[in-house]
Every structure is written in structure tokens, then in C-alpha cells.
């Protein structure tokens, strides 16, 4: 493969392609700022996302990030500020897929809105940030990527300028985001203070060499603050307060984007920082406890709060928002289950869950986008009987929801199943507790997911509706997501292999 | 001969195809699916014979067709994996059984042309589909190379019997009989299932044959003295063996689970023939023969099998004495005869048991088909007191039926004599050392008298004397499709005994015990599944009265004498122009026998008086406690959800405060554990 | 002795000193209420309005643009200083020196062009004017 001959910086190609796409969108808009060619804009975004996806897949197929004879090894860039390994590429794929889906779906959703070009360029810029996050390998680059993701996200949430909910949500998101960023940066400074390094490998080395002896409390506080930053990005309790409102107020495709891609990016960075910079054993000796404990607590609280709050919602979008918080709790198991001598199984499971989640959750939010496009309303009652008018989309919705609930044989079942068995196999009391929480919460989640399915398929419509339009872009995105949710399951072998390999490589 | 064995699955597949064809297209076919069934069973018969020839030429086959689950499991004996497969085992035993089953099934199909089609029944596609599925299940059961596959088809056999017994589902009695058959055998199968699980979890394999079999594993365990689930290895083998035996007792209608079988006479007579001769009831005994190596390792289990068999033989025979319905008599004779087979198996007489299984298949199919023929003759009248004098009006039916009756009664030289005598001889020589077996033998011997009596009572009442009703005067005529199977089976009932003329062989010293050679690996054989392997395993000692030959002659003379005595008694009482009931002579015993020893009554009481209240209590528990807990959980969850929802106040300053508070709480917890504040 | 005791003491003192000063001045000062004391302080000038004035949003726009290009200068300046030395040395090629900075400037130019074309530097348009321009 030709990857050998390319200069090192092309390792970041998936992110760079996205950046170039964003610039191209600006150029397009500069040429004709007063006319919005929606097809062109959406097309450019989708093409860019797909190109990024293709390159990332190619890299993985070519063996970037894999050791051994056929592997090309991990690509280190800019003195270790960035690293392109299997995990980075895996999450670049997740981000690119979701971005492509959202771009296609937005074509219809944003039909009558102003700020078309800005919308797409912000979207792609945020995607660039997420993609960069996947490869970031130093606390500085991590922070920059984090901000590159967050700032466009704030604007995107508030992009419906005439909608009070949207603007309010954007502002809240921004304020909580600023607070969380502040905590994160403070954490970075404390870690730097304790170890004298920002580059992740260097931090680990410094910890091994006992540089931070005597600064256990300082380091612990720093680590906890870093966790706070990631918790914000992944919408984990107690940094989740922005999520229900941002997801509800934002345009539905953006909700899909934030709850899938942005969350995945938050997780990849958490995975990388905690596996690379803070080896469990050394760090544990220094700070007096395993940092996995923090994640155990966060995982349990997050899934419980998310699912319980989702159970009694009236509005579909808000229900999905809380369910998204619940799923963050599931994915946190990946970090909670790390042990001194392993844990790649459970972390791989978390990565798988994020991939499957990328399809099923995006799909579910896109269905909400479709409903908003139709203008049927926001509550469960408003969705009653939609299956009569739009059976295909509603069938897809059924797939998404049952997959989210973890019903076999859909993709969501398998990733949850792996998480569960992974958690059990670790075998400590706390992990058994986490596994139990996972089961209980999944059971509860089935309640509110099936409520929506029931509304759509079984209940009679409250009002008489005319036939509903079938916007091509939205439909295509929904159907594709549904197909992927189902198709992922025969493909689960390679996917789980890739995920577990990627997890094993960083641990 | 590997090539021949590759067609083995087709033996079972043909009837399955017939089932599908009859079900889907039966309505449009000229004989409503009969032809498909006949063709399929003829094909199966042909292939079975090919298998038989292949085995005779010294080949056997044991192979896996499909592996549907492989698991890691730490079993009690330390094997660390288990495979669940579908496989085929063709050894002398299964090859023989295949021929028997497919032959009987074929003849029953042919007979059905006259019995069902000829009589203008409706719902024939359903009937032939049922027969096809029944045959398929039984053949697959015979082919099975592991216990789990055997169990599956065992269950399927039970299901098919349910469907066919309840064929006339518009009557009141047939559905009830079908349900009874299903439930009673299910009760036994419940233990069978537990046995399968127990064996799987103990030995990690369910194979019948080979190094990997549970039989071999059990042998190793006993040799090593491994403790299994807290029991000694022999005790555990006994326990698991007896659990599996539960299924056998249910299916082979042994005491106390025999009650379903007489009721099953509600099905078409052809179905009864199939059930009794070759499929359902035979399945139980076949299973014992199939895993005989396992039982052979547990003298306790064998004794129980023998005793239950002997007891059932006598018990059922006495009940058969007072029945008026021709099919009822045959039904009790079936129970009794399977008792003999169990007795034979139980005393280690593997060859004798299989021999009797084979002979019984032929003569019982013959008798049932003969009874079917009589029923056709009599315009569907089954009460023997309304018959009489059919001898001259239906000679083919009479002579073939008589051959079957002689075989059943065990009169020399008909096939039944040779096999029954061998069973009793094996029981006697073991019984001379084992009092329990001796008791079983005594019961078996006594039953011979009753067998002779009720058999000939049936023959004389049906065929001899003067016609007692108008229909008996002018019987309906029967066609070739009825006569042909009767003639084939009649010949077999007469001649099948030649297969193993053990007494003759012992007297003359000729090597003519072919069946014994067959099962003992003279032809093809599978390691560990031969008669002498079994014989070495069985721990019974054998004794003789003065010498082997004397013992044999004594036993044979005794049983023959008793059989003839029974026949003569019947002759005296019933072979008169105008026979009368002699029930008064029995006194109080008559009521007991008529009521089948009140077996049904106590089982009904068990169901209604014991199980029903228990079930009600469980239902109440479920409705109140379980549902209450479930509803409580959901209410609590929703209430909790409502509370959790309220954290989200909508005011961003509250969020910031809560966020920081949460963070600080986390900090305090972790800091406290990690000791950061010291 | 635990370090935290010293820290706590310091925090306590740090809190007490300003509070104490305020309390003392509250006790000692003469009380002369007057309206001028409540007026906005504008370096001695006569105040023209309250503190809560609305600024035009475009101040922020200009401020943001200024910030972007200000930072660009901060990055360009050190680069320009080492540029000649880097060109003369053989350690790095010209593309390696020039390339990143050109890319950086190009990105900024795209941004500037877009902002310009979208009217970020046009002053004070009412919504109606924007509407008529579109």
C-alpha cells in the first residue's frame, strides 16, 4: 500500500480533509453569499465527510496503527502531539459516518432556514475538531481540539435564531461549556504542575520516574478535573445539565450530531488520556486509589439518572436526550472496567457500543427531525399513528429504538452484551454492581422506548393528518442508519475484533 | 460401503417429504397423500435394507451431520467442552430397527388405503401427513447418535401420537385420549429431560458410541471412583439412568405410566398398529437397548427395569382378561409384552429383549391390522360379544390373525415363543442367584398363562362360534390393500423366530443363533456396543438348575405348558357356539380388573386433588406477590423518574451550582478514599 | 503539623482583613448622604448616562476580527525573525519553513474574505437594509 510513501502528516488526513471541506464551504459562501445553493452545500459537506471516512477506512485496512509484520505501526506526529493509531482511526470513522448522515439529512431539514452555508461549515468544523480529538495525544492539543469542537457546537445549537428554545439552549450550553472548560484547563494545569509534562506519554514516564512523588493530592485533583472536562463532552452526570436542553432546543440533526459524534469524541479522548497518561498501577500508588472508581461512580449515576429521567418524559426529543445520557453511562463502563493487567475486552465493548450507537441514536434523532419537518408536534401523543402514513420510516424507528433498548438480535444488543460480559469478567464487586445497574437500566429503558414504538405503531392518531411528504435526504439517511444497525450484526466479528484490537493497542 | 451410508439421512428424509407433500398438496392428489406416504416409506424400507446389507458386510457408520452448538463447560468429570450435534449411528441394532420401523410403516400405509380411503374418511391429508411425520420422527430417533437428538425426536414422536390419536377430534373421547397420552408421556419425559441434562453436565458428552461417549465416560468414572455431584459414581449412574428411564416408562407404557395406552385406542386402528408395533411404544425399549451399556453398569437400575417389566407384564395381562373391546385386549397385551422386553433388558438379556422387540413388532402390527380388518368387516363394531363366526367369512383375516395370536401367546413354533422363552430363560438363570429377579421372573411366567388365555378368548369370541349379530352375519368385504399387509406380517409372525433359535442351537450345537451373532459383532459392529461387551459389564451372576440344558428345557416347557393351559382354558370357556360371560366366577376381582386396578382414579386424584390446589396456590402467589412486586417496581421507577426529572429546573445558575456541587461531592468521596487531605 | 491548617489559617486571615477594614471604616466614617456619590464614575467627566448602556453588537464583531488578526501577528512575528536563519541553514527545506505559514495565512484569508463578503465589516445596518440587500 502506498501509505508508506506518504509524508507523516498525511496520517491526519481524515481530519485535514474535513478542515479543507470547511474551508471550501467558506469559499463557496464567499463567492455567492446571498444565494444559498442547498444541494451544493450539503453535497460538499457529505462528500467531505465521506472522503474522510474512506481515507480512515483505507488506513485501517492498510494496517496503520497495527504492530506486527503487515502492520504499519502507529504514526507519531509533531513530537507526539498527535498520534494516529487504530483507536484514533476507529473514532474518525464514527465521526465521519455521523457527519455524513447528518449532512444528508440536513438538506431537507434546513430547507427554509437562513444561514445555510454557516450551518454546514460549522458542522464540518466541529467534525474536524472531533476528528482531531481522536488523534490528539497531548493535553494542549486535546484542549484545542475540544474547543474547536465545542465553539461551533454552541453556535449550531443556537442557529435557529428566531426560535427562543434554540437560542436559550445555545446560551445554556455555552455557559455550562465555559464552566466545564475552565475546570478542564485547571485540571490540565494541575497535572502539569505535578508532572511537568503535557504530552501524554511523557506524563506516564514522569509518573513512572516518581517525579510526582508527594503531589498525590494535587495530581488526583487534576485528574478529577480532567474527568470533569470529559464528562461535559460526553454528557455524563453531573456535567450533563446542558444536554437535555441543548438536544431539545437544537435542530434535530444537530442533536443527532452532538449526541453521537461529539459524545464518541469525548470518549475517545477520555480513553486515550486515561490509558496512556495515567497507568493504573503507578497512578494508583500516587493518588491512593484507582481512578476507575471515579468512572464506576459516574457510570452508575449517569445511567441511572439518564434512564430514570427519560422514563417519564412527555416529549420525544427530550426522552431521547435523556436516553443519550443513559448511554453515556453504558459507555463509561469501558473506563470503569480497566484493570492493571487488562480490560481491553470491556473497553473494546464500549468502543463497539459507541459505533453502534452512532447509527441507532443518529437514526432516532433523524426520525425526530423528520417529524419536525412534517410538523406533527413534539409529544408522544403527537406521534400517534404515524406508521399509517410513513411505514418505512416508522419501521426504521422501531429498529433504532429496540436496538437502543438492547433487544436481540439488533446491533445494540450485542454491544451491550459485550459490555455486560466484559464487566462481569472483571469480577470485582464494583464492576458487578455496574453490570447490575446496566441490566436494570436497560430493562427500564425498554419501557420508554417501547412507549414510543407503541405510540407510532399501535395508537390511533389523535388528529386527521394528510399524507406526509417523503423528503429524500432525510429518508435516505434514516434508512441507511437502520440498515447499518441491522447489518452491523453479521459484521460484528470484524468490528469487535477491530475495536478490541484498538483497545488492546492503547492499554 | 461409505457410499451407501451417505444416503442414510434420506431414510428419515423421505417420510418428511411425504409429510410436507401430504400437508400441502394432499387435497389435490388422487389418494389424498397416501401414495406419497407409500412411496416414501417404500424408499425408506429399501434404503434400510441397504443399510442392513451394508452392516452385514461388516461396515458401520457413525458420523456427525450438523453441529448446532459448541460450548465451554466445566463438567463434573473434568471435560471442558460440550458439543450438541445431529449425527447418525448405524450399527447392527439401529439397522435392524430401521428395517422393522420402515417395514411396519410401509405396511400400515398400504393398509390405510383400505382402512381409511376405502371407508370414505375425511381429513385424509392430515392423516397421511401425521403418519409421515410420525415415521420421520421415529426413524430419526432410531438413527440418532446422541442422547439429546434422541430426546428431540422422542418428543416429536410424542407430538405425532397426540396428533394421530386425536385424529377424530370431533368426538368427545378422542381429543381427551390424545391429551392424556400427551400429558402422561410428558410426565415421564420430564424426568428424561432432567436425565439428559444430568448426563450432559456430568460427562460433557451425549454420544452413544465411541471413545467420546457418556457410556465410556461413565465406565472410566466408575473405574477411577470419581465422586460425581457428591455421590459415588455407580450411584450417580443409577440416578441418571433412572431419570432417563422415566421417559422410557412413559413411552413404553410401563407401570405406573401405562394408563394412556388403552385410551389411545381412540385413534384409527392403523395408528394403533404403528404406535404399538414400531414407533412410539417401541421407542422406549429401543432407547434402553441403545444405551444399554450405560444401564449395564448399574445393577440397581437393571433390577428396577427387570422388576418393573415383570410386574407390568403380569399386571397388564390380568387386565386384558376381562376386556370386551377387541382393541382394548390388544392394548393390554402390548403393555404386557413390553413388560417382557423390559424384563429381558433388565436381566442383561440384551439379545432376548431386542429379539422380542422385533418379533413383537411383527405380530402386534399383524394383530392390530387384523383387528382393523375385523372392524372393517364388522362395519366399525369393536365389541367382541357382537362378533363370532367370522372364521369362514374372512379366511385370510382369520388365518393371519391366528398366526399373530399364536405368536403372541407364545406357542411353539411361532416367533413369539422363541423370543419370550429366551427372555424368561435369561430371567430365570439370573433369578436363581437374585431373589428380586426371581420374583420378576415368576410374575413374567404367570403372565404367560394369562396371555394365552386372553389371546384365545379374543380369537374364539371373534372368529369362532355362531354369528351373534346381523353384521357378523353379513360382513363387509375387504380389499387387497388390507389382505396384503396381513399376509406379509402373518408370514413374518410364523417365521421370524428363525432368527434366533437359541434352544435349538443349544440342543443340537448348531450355530443358528443369527440375531445373537448379529448383535455380537459377527458382522459389522461399533466398538463397545456389542452383546459380549454388555455381558461383561452386567454384574449379575448366573445359576443353573443342574445344567444349562436342563434349565433351559425346564423353563421352555414351563412357559409353553402355561401358554397352552391358558389357550385350553379359553377353548373350554369360549369356543362354543354360544359363548357366555364367565365374569361371575371372578367375584370381586372382576370389578377391580374391569376398573384397571383403579389406576386412572388415583392418577386423576393426583391431578385434581393435589396438583390443582398447588397450581391454584402458585397462581395466587403469582397474581399477588410476584405481580405486586413487578407493579411496585414499575411504580417506584416512574416515581423515581419523576423526581429525577425535577433536577432539571431550566435555570442555568442552578445547573452551574449543581454541577459544581456534584463535582465537589465526587472530589470529597475520592479525596477521602485516596487520602488527599491528610 | 498539617499543611492544611496553615492554608486554612491563611484563607481565614485573607478573608478577615478586608472584612475587618470594611467594618472599621463603617464604624468610623461620618455619614453624609449625597446623590453625586451614587453617580457613575467617568474619570471626572460629567456622566452621560447609566452604566447599563447597550452597545451595538458590531463592536463585538470588530473586536473578534481584531483578535483573530492580532493573534496572527503574534504568530507571524517570531516566525519572521527566525525565517532568514532557517533558510540559510540546511537542516530544513524551504517548503518546510514556508509551507505551514502560507497555509496559516491562506486559512485566515479565506476567513477574512468570507467575513467581508458576508458584511461583517459593514457598519450599522438595520434589519430592513439587510433584507433589501439579499
From TrEMBL, chain A:
InterPro entries: NADH-Q_OxRdtase_suN/2 (IPR010096), ND/Mrp_TM (IPR001750). It is found in: Membrane. One of its GO terms (cellular component) is membrane. Keywords: Membrane, Transmembrane, Transmembrane helix. Its main location: membrane. The keyword Transmembrane helix applies. It is a multi-pass membrane protein. One of its GO terms (biological process) is ATP synthesis coupled electron transport. It holds the Pfam family Proton_antipo_M. The chain crosses the membrane at residues 6-28, 40-61, 87-107, 119-136, 142-161, 173-194, 214-232, 252-271, 291-312, 319-338, 350-371, 392-411, 417-444, 474-492. Residues 136-434 form the NADH:quinone oxidoreductase/Mrp antiporter transmembrane domain. One of its GO terms (molecular function) is NADH dehydrogenase (ubiquinone) activity. PANTHER family: NADH DEHYDROGENASE. NCBIfam families: NDH_I_N. This is NADH-quinone oxidoreductase subunit N. It comes from Natronobacterium haloterrestre.
TrEMBL record, chain B:
GO terms for molecular function: NADH dehydrogenase (ubiquinone) activity; NADH dehydrogenase activity. Its main location: membrane. InterPro entries: NADHpl_OxRdtase_5_subgr (IPR018393), ND/Mrp_TM (IPR001750), NU5C-like (IPR003945), Proton_antipo_N (IPR001516). Residues 80-128 form the NADH-Ubiquinone oxidoreductase (complex I) chain 5 N-terminal domain. The keyword Protein transport does not apply. This is NADH dehydrogenase subunit L. Keywords: Membrane, Transmembrane, Transmembrane helix. Coiled coil: none annotated.
Automatic annotation (TrEMBL), chain C:
It is found in: Membrane. The chain crosses the membrane at residues 6-28, 59-77, 97-116. GO terms for molecular function: NADH dehydrogenase (ubiquinone) activity. Keywords: Membrane, Transmembrane, Transmembrane helix, Transport. One of its GO terms (cellular component) is NADH dehydrogenase complex. The keyword Transport applies. The keyword Cell membrane does not apply. Pfam families: Oxidored_q4 (PF00507). Belongs to the complex I subunit 3 family. This is NADH dehydrogenase subunit A. It comes from Natronobacterium haloterrestre.
Amino acid at each position: 500500500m502506498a501509505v508508506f510513501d506518504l509524508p507523516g502528516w498525511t496520517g491526519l488526513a481524515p481530519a485535514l480533509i474535513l478542515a479543507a471541506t470547511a474551508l471550501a464551504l467558506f469559499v463557496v459562501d464567499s463567492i455567492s453569499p446571498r444565494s444559498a445553493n442547498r444541494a451544493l452545500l450539503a453535497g460538499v459537506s457529505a462528500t467531505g465527510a465521506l472522503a474522510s471516512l474512506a481515507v480512515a477506512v483505507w488506513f485501517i485496512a492498510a494496517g496503520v496503527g497495527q504492530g506486527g509484520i503487515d502492520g504499519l505501526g502507529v504514526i507519531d506526529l509533531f513530537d507526539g502531539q498527535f498520534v494516529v493509531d487504530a483507536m484514533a482511526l476507529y473514532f474518525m470513522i464514527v465521526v465521519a459516518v455521523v457527519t455524513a448522515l447528518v449532512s444528508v439529512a440536513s438538506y431537507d431539514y434546513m430547507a427554509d432556514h437562513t444561514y445555510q452555508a454557516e450551518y454546514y461549515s460549522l458542522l464540518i468544523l466541529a467534525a474536524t475538531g472531533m476528528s482531531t480529538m481522536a488523534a490528539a495525544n497531548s493535553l494542549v492539543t486535546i484542549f484545542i481540539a475540544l474547543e474547536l469542537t465545542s465553539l461551533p457546537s454552541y453556535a449550531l445549537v443556537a442557529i435557529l435564531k428566531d426560535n427562543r428554545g434554540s437560542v436559550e439552549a445555545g446560551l445554556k450550553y455555552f455557559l455550562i461549556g465555559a464552566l466545564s472548560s475552565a475546570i478542564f484547563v485547571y485540571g490540565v494545569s494541575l497535572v502539569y504542575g505535578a508532572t511537568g509534562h503535557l504530552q501524554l506519554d511523557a506524563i506516564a514516564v514522569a509518573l513512572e520516574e516518581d517525579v510526582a512523588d508527594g503531589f498525590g493530592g494535587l495530581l488526583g485533583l487534576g485528574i478529577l478535573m480532567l474527568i470533569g472536562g470529559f464528562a461535559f463532552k460526553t454528557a455524563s452526570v453531573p456535567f450533563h445539565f446542558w444536554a437535555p436542553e441543548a438536544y431539545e432546543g437544537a435542530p434535530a440533526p444537530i442533536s443527532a450530531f452532538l449526541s453521537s459524534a461529539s459524545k464518541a469524541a469525548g470518549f475517545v479522548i477520555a480513553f486515550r488520556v486515561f490509558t496512556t497518561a495515567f497507568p493504573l498501577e503507578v497512578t494508583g500508588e500516587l493518588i491512593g486509589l484507582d481512578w476507575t472508581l471515579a468512572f464506576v461512580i459516574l457510570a452508575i449515576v449517569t445511567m441511572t439518572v439518564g434512564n430514570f429521567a427519560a422514563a417519564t418524559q412527555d416529549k420525544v426529543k427530550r426522552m431521547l436526550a435523556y436516553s443519550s445520557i443513559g448511554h453515556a453511562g453504558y459507555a463509561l463502563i469501558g473506563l470503569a472496567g480497566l484493570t492493571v493487567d487488562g480490560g481491553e475486552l470491556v473497553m473494546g465493548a464500549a468502543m463497539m457500543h459507541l459505533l453502534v450507537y452512532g447509527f441507532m441514536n443518529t437514526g432516532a434523532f433523524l426520525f425526530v427531525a423528520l417529524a419536525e419537518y412534517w410538523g406533527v408536534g413534539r409529544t408522544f401523543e403527537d406521534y400517534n399513528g404515524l406508521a399509517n402514513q410513513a411505514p418505512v420510516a416508522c419501521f426504521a424507528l422501531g429498529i433504532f429504538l429496540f436496538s437502543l433498548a438492547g433487544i436481540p438480535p439488533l446491533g445494540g444488543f450485542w454491544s451491550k452484551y459485550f459490555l455486560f460480559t466484559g464487566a462481569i469478567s472483571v469480577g470485582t464487586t464494583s464492576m458487578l454492581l455496574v453490570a447490575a445497574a446496566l441490566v436494570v437500566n436497560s430493562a427500564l429503558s425498554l419501557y420508554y422506548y417501547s412507549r414510543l414504538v407503541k405510540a407510532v405503531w399501535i395508537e390511533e392518531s389523535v388528529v386527521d393528518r394528510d399524507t406526509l411528504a417523503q423528503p429524500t435526504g432525510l429518508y435516505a439517511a434514516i434508512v441507511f442508519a437502520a440498515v447499518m444497525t441491522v447489518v452491523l450484526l453479521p459484521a460484528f466479528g470484524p468490528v469487535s475484533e477491530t475495536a478490541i484490537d484498538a483497545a488492546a493497542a492503547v492499554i | 460401503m461409505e457410499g451407501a451410508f451417505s444416503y442414510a439421512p434420506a431414510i428419515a428424509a423421505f417420510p418428511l417429504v411425504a409429510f410436507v407433500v401430504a400437508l400441502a398438496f394432499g387435497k389435490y392428489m388422487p389418494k389424498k397423500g397416501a401414495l406419497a406416504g407409500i412411496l416414501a416409506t417404500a424408499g425408506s424400507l429399501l434404503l434400510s435394507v441397504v443399510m442392513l446389507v451394508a452392516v452385514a458386510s461388516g461396515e458401520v457408520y457413525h458420523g456427525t451431520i450438523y453441529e448446532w452448538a459448541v460450548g465451554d463447560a466445566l463438567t463434573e468429570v473434568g471435560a471442558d467442552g460440550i458439543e450438541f450435534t445431529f449425527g447418525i449411528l448405524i450399527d447392527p441394532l439401529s439397522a435392524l430397527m430401521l428395517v422393522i420401523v420402515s417395514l411396519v410403516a410401509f405396511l400400515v400405509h398400504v393398509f390405510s388405503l383400505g382402512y381409511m380411503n376405502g371407508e370414505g374418511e375425511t381429513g385424509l391429508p392430515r392423516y397421511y401427513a401425521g403418519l409421515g411425520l410420525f415415521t420421520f420422527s421415529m426413524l430419526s430417533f432410531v438413527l440418532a447418535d446422541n442422547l439429546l437428538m434422541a430426546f428431540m425426536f422422542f418428543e416429536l414422536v410424542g407430538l405425532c401420537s397426540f396428533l394421530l390419536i386425536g385424529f377424530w377430534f370431533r368426538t368427545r373421547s378422542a381429543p381427551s385420549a390424545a391429551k392424556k397420552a400427551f400429558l402422561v408421556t410428558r410426565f415421564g419425559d420430564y424426568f428424561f429431560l432432567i436425565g439428559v441434562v444430568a448426563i450432559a453436565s456430568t460427562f460433557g458428552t451425549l454420544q452413544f458410541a465411541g471413545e467420546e461417549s457418556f457410556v465410556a465416560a461413565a465406565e472410566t468414572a466408575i473405574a477411577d471412583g470419581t465422586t460425581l455431584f457428591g455421590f459415588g459414581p455407580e450411584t450417580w449412574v443409577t440416578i441418571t439412568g433412572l431419570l432417563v428411564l422415566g421417559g422410557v416408562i412413559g413411552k413404553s407404557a410401563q407401570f405406573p405410566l401405562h394408563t394412556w395406552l388403552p385410551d389411545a385406542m381412540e385413534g384409527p386402528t392403523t395408528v394403533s398398529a404403528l404406535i404399538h408395533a414400531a414407533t412410539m411404544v417401541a421407542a422406549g425399549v429401543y432407547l434402553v437397548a441403545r444405551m444399554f451399556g450405560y444401564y449395564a453398569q448399574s445393577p440397581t437400575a437393571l433390577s428396577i427395569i427387570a422388576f418393573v417389566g415383570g410386574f407390568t407384564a403380569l399386571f397388564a395381562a390380568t387386565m386384558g382378561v376381562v376386556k370386551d373391546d377387541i382393541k382394548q385386549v390388544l392394548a393390554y397385551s402390548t403393555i404386557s409384552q413390553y413388560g417382557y422386553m423390559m424384563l429381558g433388558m433388565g436381566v442383561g438379556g440384551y439379545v432376548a429383549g431386542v429379539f422380542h422387540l422385533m418379533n413383537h413388532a411383527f405380530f402386534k402390527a399383524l394383530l392390530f391390522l387384523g383387528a382393523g380388518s375385523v372392524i372393517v368387516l364388522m362395519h366399525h363394531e369393536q365389541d367382541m360379544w357382537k362378533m363370532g363366526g367370522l372364521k369362514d367369512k374372512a379366511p385370510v383375516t382369520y388365518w393371519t390373525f391366528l398366526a399373530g395370536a399364536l405368536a403372541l401367546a407364545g406357542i411353539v413354533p411361532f416367533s413369539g415363543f422363541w423370543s419370550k422363552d429366551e427372555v424368561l430363560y435369561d430371567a430365570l438363570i439370573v433369578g436363581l442367584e437374585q431373589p428380586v429377579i426371581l420374583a420378576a421372573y415368576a410374575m413374567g411366567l404367570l403372565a404367560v398363562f394369562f396371555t394365552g388365555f386372553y389371546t384365545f378368548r379374543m380369537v374364539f369370541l371373534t372368529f369362532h362360534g355362531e354369528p351373534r349379530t346381523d353384521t357378523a352375519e353379513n360382513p363387509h368385504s375387504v380389499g387387497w390393500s388390507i389382505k396384503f399387509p396381513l399376509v406379509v406380517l402373518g408370514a413374518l409372525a410364523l417365521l421370524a423366530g428363525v432368527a434366533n433359535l437359541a434352544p435349538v442351537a443349544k440342543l443340537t450345537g448348531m450355530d443358528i443363533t443369527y440375531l445373537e451373532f448379529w448383535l455380537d459383532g459377527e458382522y459389522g459392529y461399533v466398538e463397545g456396543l456389542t452383546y459380549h461387551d454388555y455381558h461383561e459389564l452386567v454384574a449379575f451372576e448366573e445359576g443353573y438348575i443342574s445344567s444349562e440344558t436342563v434349565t433351559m428345557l425346564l423353563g421352555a416347557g414351563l412357559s409353553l405348558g402355561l401358554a397352552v393351559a391358558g389357550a385350553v382354558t379359553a377353548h373350554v370357556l369360549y369356543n362354543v357356539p354360544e359363548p357366555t360371560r364367565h365374569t361371575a366366577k371372578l367375584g370381586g376381582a372382576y370389578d377391580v380388573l374391569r376398573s384397571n386396578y383403579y389406576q386412572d382414579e388415583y392418577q386423576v386424584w393426583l391431578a385434581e386433588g393435589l396438583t390443582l390446589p398447588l397450581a391454584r396456590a402458585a397462581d395466587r402467589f403469582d397474581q399477588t406477590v410476584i405481580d405486586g412486586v413487578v407493579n411496585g417496581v414499575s411504580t417506584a421507577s416512574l416515581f423515581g423518574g419523576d423526581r429525577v426529572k425535577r433536577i432539571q429546573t431550566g435555570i442555568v445558575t442552578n445547573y452551574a451550582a449543581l454541577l459544581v456541587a456534584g463535582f465537589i461531592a465526587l472530589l470529597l468521596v475520592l479525596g477521602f478514599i485516596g487520602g488527599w487531605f491528610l | 503539623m498539617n499543611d492544611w491548617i496553615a492554608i486554612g489559617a491563611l484563607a481565614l486571615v485573607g478573608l478577615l482583613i478586608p472584612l475587618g477594614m470594611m467594618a472599621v471604616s463603617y464604624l468610623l466614617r461620618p455619614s453624609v448622604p449625597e446623590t453625586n456619590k451614587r453617580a457613575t464614575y467617568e474619570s471626572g467627566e460629567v456622566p452621560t448616562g447609566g452604566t447599563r448602556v447597550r452597545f451595538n453588537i458590531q463592536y463585538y464583531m470588530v473586536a473578534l476580527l481584531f483578535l483573530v488578526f492580532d493573534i496572527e501577528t503574534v504568530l507571524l512575528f517570531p516566525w519572521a525573525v527566525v525565517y532568514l536563519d532557517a533558510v540559510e541553514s540546511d537542516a530544513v527545506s524551504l517548503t518546510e519553513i514556508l509551507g505551514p505559514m502560507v497555509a496559516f495565512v491562506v486559512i485566515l484569508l479565506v476567513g477574512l474574505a468570507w467575513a467581508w463578503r458576508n458584511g461583517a465589516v459593514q457598519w450599522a445596518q438595520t434589519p430592513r437594509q439587510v433584507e433589501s440587500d439579499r
